[in-house]
């Protein structure tokens, strides 16, 4: 209910936690799962990022954080306003490059969001 989720501490090269504590989910899966999730789309104003929560088939709760065109565009605008040299996003290979119309639209929107 309070949307607080903590990652187990899995040290990696001196960092207190790593991606070993969670797993990467393809953007296409996120886009299909978010609408049927327990929480629906949620927004964190501090991180300027969307997330959602769901329960898996064995009853375990999960929280999925991701970037979408809105959050990427806010970050790109911040970079531009500060005169920084550039921006990138984690793993563009996780976007859906199938020929489905919705997938093409979502993927195009993500890439366009990188240019404020």
Automatic annotation (TrEMBL):
UniProt domain GH18: residue ranges: 1-116
Family matches, as InterPro entries: GH, GH18_Domain-Containing, Glyco_hydro18_cat
GO molecular function annotation: chitinase activity
SUPFAM superfamilies: (Trans)glycosidases
Keywords per UniProt: Glycosidase, Hydrolase
GO CC annotations, alphabetized: extracellular space
Annotated Pfam families: Glyco_hydro_18
Stretch forming the signal peptide: none
Any one biological process term the GO annotation gives: oligosaccharide catabolic process
UniProt keyword GTP-binding present: no
Organism: Aegithalos caudatus (Long-tailed tit)
Protein name: DIAC acetylchitobiase
PROSITE patterns in the record: GH18_2 (PS51910)
């Amino acid at each position: 209910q309070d949307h607080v989720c903590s990652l187990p501490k899995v040290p990696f090269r001196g960092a207190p936690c790593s991606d070993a504590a969670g797993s990467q989910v393809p953007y296409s899966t996120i886009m299909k799962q978010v609408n049927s999730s327990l929480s629906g789309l949620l927004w964190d104003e501090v991180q300027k990022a969307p997330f959602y929560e769901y329960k898996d088939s064995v009853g375990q709760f999960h929280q999925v954080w991701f970037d979408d065109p809105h959050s990427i565009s806010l970050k790109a605008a911040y970079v531009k306003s500060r005169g920084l040299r550039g921006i990138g996003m984690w793993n563009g290979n996780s976007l859906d490059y199938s020929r489905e119309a919705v997938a093409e639209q979502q993927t195009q929107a993500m890439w366009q969001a990188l240019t404020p």
